[in-house]
Amino acid sequence: MTRQQVQKVAVGSITAVAIVAVLPIVVIIGFILVQGIGAINLTFLTSAPSNGMRDGGILPAILGTLILTLGTAIVCIPIAVAAAIYLAEYAGDTRLTRWVRLAIVNLAGIPSIVYGLFGLGVFVLFLGFGTSILAGSLTLGIMTLPVVISTAEEAILAVPQRFRVVSLSLGATRWQTIWHQVLPHALPGIITGIILGLGRAAGETAPILFTVAAFYLPDLPSSIFDQTMALPYHLYAISTQVPDMPLSIQYGTALVLLMIVLSLTLVAALFRTRMRRRRTW
Known about the structure:
Helix content is 75%, strand content 1%. It contains eleven helices and two strands, in the order H-H-E-E-H-H-H-H-H-H-H-H-H. The chain has helices at 3-36, 42-46, 59-90, 95-108, 112-126, 133-157, 161-169, 174-202, 206-211, 231-240, 247-277; strands spanning 49-50, 55-56.
């Protein structure tokens, strides 16, 4: 075979593998869309469940998911970005930092139910927060930390070293260089990692099952020490615990959750694309 033929075979094989990988996702999304779109209306999105959750809407679950996502961001973002800056800019390549990076990678692969049990033992029972928004946000924040730290560190390390050298040679301090030169150029990657991490947290069921989620709460929470409904657990509850639940409501709830997660992913992709167009390197 000639070089051109080999290249065509390779490109064709890669394209076929990509299609095989993407097609099931498209089929699943399409199936949920077809099954659940009939349940989506203004009442479904703006009212509380009624008649044993067989009627009404899912507003408390939507707002609860958004509240937990916001709480996760508050807990996760400052710690994760600070840790990424330290590992990328201040920590040397020592045995300790290599072990720390290995631990971060391993923590990112731990099943979410383990984080849920950790949150139950530490935040709910030991610290006495009870099943609350605070306990759930802390648990989801810790679960999201490894992903955001790794992504943010890679984004910071991707900034060319010459930016640092020029800034330092002009008399800037190390922190001024990081703040004014490194972080602005690393921001697209950092924001992307944060949004993707929050998207994962918004769709998790196991961590909130032990720490915050309520089966049915028609009223909105008034304190961080209150329980709240959330879409992932609500979907689990109506699919397994409520008899004679209409399938349209189940798929409609799944569709709303899917749209929230996909919206976060889309925002990350658009932000990354827009910021990369502004790069001069």
